[in-house]
Amino acid sequence: MLTLFRYNWQVRADWFDWSESVPTEELTRQRTGGVGSILRTLFHVVDVEQAWILQGLQGKPEFHYHYEDYDSLDAVRNLSDVCSPRILDFVMNWCGDLENRKLDDFTYGEVLLHVVAHEIHHMGQLSVWAREVGREPISANVIGRNLM
C-alpha cells in the first residue's frame, strides 16, 4: 500500500510542478467534470486524503479544509506538504489487524484503497484538462519512478 501512496505523491508533486508554468486563470478556470478546476481538484485530492486517513481512520470527527483558505498553487502545495508526512506515518504503521476493522459500513482496507483510487481518478481528469489547455499531461506511468 505504501508504494501506491508514494506513487500518488510523486504524481501529485509532478502536477504541482506542471502547474507552475500554467497561468493562474487556466488553473482556476471552471471546467466540465470533476470538482471544477485544476487547482480545486489538486486541493480536493489533498483534502479527501487527509479527511479519510488523518480523521476517519484515526477515530476523529470528519474535518475538511476550505478551498477559499487554500486558493493558490503555493497554498495547496503547502497543505499537501503538511498532510503527507502525517499520512505516511499512518501508512508506515499499518498492520494487518487494521485491514478488516470497521469504519461505519467500510473496512479500513477499503478506505485506503478508495483514497488511492480516488486520487488516480482525479489525475486522469487533470490529464484531459491539460490537453484542453494545449499542454502535455503528467505521465501516469508507475514504471521508472523508482518506487520499489
Q: How would you describe this protein?
A:
Strand 1 (102-103) and strand 2 (106-107) form a beta hairpin. Helix content is 59%, strand content 3%. It is mainly α. The termini are close together. The longest helix has 25 residues, at 108-132. It is built from 5 helices and 2 strands.
| Helix content class | 55-70%
Given the structure, what is the number of helices?
5
In whole angstroms, how far apart are the ends? 12 Å
Q: Which term fits the overall shape?
A: globular
Total strand segments: 2
Sheet with the most strands, sense and barrel status: 2 strands, antiparallel
Q: Quick check: average pLDDT? A: 96
**Cross-sheet strand order for the largest sheet:** 1-2
Low-confidence stretches: none
